[in-house]
Amino acid sequence: MQETEGRLLGGRVRYAQPACGFRSGIEPVLLAAAIPAAPGESVIEGGSGAGAGLLCLAARVGGIEGLGIERDPALAALAQRNAAANSQPTLNFIAADIARLPRTARADHAFANPPYHPGAGTASPDPARASAKQGGAEVFAVWTHALATLLRAGGTITLIAPPARVPACLEALARAKCGSGSLYPLWPHAATAAKLVLIQATRLGRGPFRILPGLVLHERAGGYTKAADAILSDGAAISI
Fold first, then answer.
1. CATH number of the domain bearing residue 121
2. Domain tally for the chain?
3. Does residue 205 sit within a domain?
4. Does residue 210 belong to any structural domain of this protein?
5. How far apart are CA 148 and CA 99, in angstroms?
6. 164 is in which domain, residue-wise?
7. What percent of the chain is predicted at pLDDT more than 70?
């Protein structure tokens, strides 16, 4: 597997990823910014890929214990090498099917960027990219149940999804007994429709559902907004 070397969070995180196939965008960085973890807490990521999400979270919050679950053994091994390259010995990545994990762990937080595209239209000719991006109607139910089962009561689960999949995501969270939900829109530009949203809920939470102000990512003239750049380059947190 050919790899490319890069940096995340303005150079704070060294990050190697496959040269071909599925490549990380800004989604795992935004997800990591939204996890309300504290030092010493445990975090599980579903579909961790080459480890961008947990690496960015560990760079922002020192002392977390992270477990990345990745179906592709080569990606899981690459993520483990990335953790070593960034001196993050408490991050571990395993090759496993998220739907078949043993229910023994109890984490404080869980997050994922599920393969939310329904599979309609032309799939990517690259099998790894297609697998990472496309999932059927049941994908949120499967992933949410798997992650929620690993959470302690009061733990958070955070997902990223397009608006069209929000109803399925909320239904899956409710079935997994995750409430007190919040929706955080990610707008490409001001006064445009959001293309992605962050959804966060609490295991056994009973609070009301909230829609938050969200984040505008890009300036009309080009480049990231100051708020987005603070997250993507400086490691600022997203408060949900």
1. 3.40.50.150
2. 1
3. no
4. no
5. 11
6. 3-18+26-178
7. 88
Q: Distance between CA 31 and CA 238 in Å, rounded?
A: 9
Average pLDDT taken over every residue of the chain: 90
Tokens in use for 107? Answer: 């984490």
Determine, yes or no, domain membership for 235: no
pLDDT level of residue 173 (50, 70, 90 thresholds)? very high
The answer to whether the CB of 76 falls within 8 A of the CB of 51 is no
pLDDT digits 0-9 by tens, 187-211: 999 999 999 999 999 999 999 999 9
Q: Give domain status of residue 238, yes or no.
A: no
Nearest of 145, 143, 36, 25 to residue 50 by alpha carbon: 25
- What is the rounded CA–CA span in Å between residue 43 and residue 157? 10
Number of Cβ within a 10 Å radius of residue 19? 10
- How far apart (Å, rounded) are the C-alpha atoms in residues 172 and 141? 5
- Tokens representing 100 are 């078949």
**238 has a pLDDT exceeding 80:** yes
pTM score of the predicted model: 0.90
